[in-house]
Amino acid sequence: MAVKVVNELVTSTLSVEFTADSVVTKVNADRTPTMSVYKDSSLLFTKEGADVANATTGVYTSQWTPVATGEYEVVWTFIVNTVTYSQQEAVFVLDAAGTGLSPDDPTPDIGTANTCNVTGRFIDASGNYKKGVVVIFSPITVQAAHTSYGYIAGDASATSDATGQISMSITRNTYGLLTITGIGIVRRVTIPDQETVDVFELAAQGPDALAVQTPTYVTLPRRSP
Prior knowledge:
The protein is 4% helix and 47% strand. The protein is mainly beta.
């Protein structure tokens, strides 16, 4: 899984390989694979032909640029020895500008009874307050962005001040991606139905979206001699 920002060029990679007697060998597909990009289960576009590069044996790449925040799915489809295979990858896209609520706008229009105040303080290893840490919350599906108060069309974000503190209001019961820049924390969380929550307590409740996943290997048939 990758985390990108809006309008950042994304390079997606497909590696085609098979294993025999514990030996991994990369092979080219029968023909150039296709790469399809989906958002909220809807197909956005497909890259094929000259839009897919094959610089080394078994490795294919294609570039694309996300223009909106949310969760994307990249699906490669390829054929080896007349058998069709596919490979998927999730890409989370955040708002590069970090638009949304901030400590300078503490009172949300829908009221504090419908939002949760996320707070926290950052320091460095020397024990000094850390200024400039950015915390971003982004709904990652259309369903998560749709609330009874309206459709969430922007991220919520806050930047730590001179005392290392952040504070931002987020709509309660919203599911999304919590990112703390600079320290590698990316979590899928649900904003609790309560008045306030510590950002680290919130992060601890969600799975690590950047954790190394156990890959699913596909054993391809060996070519006949």
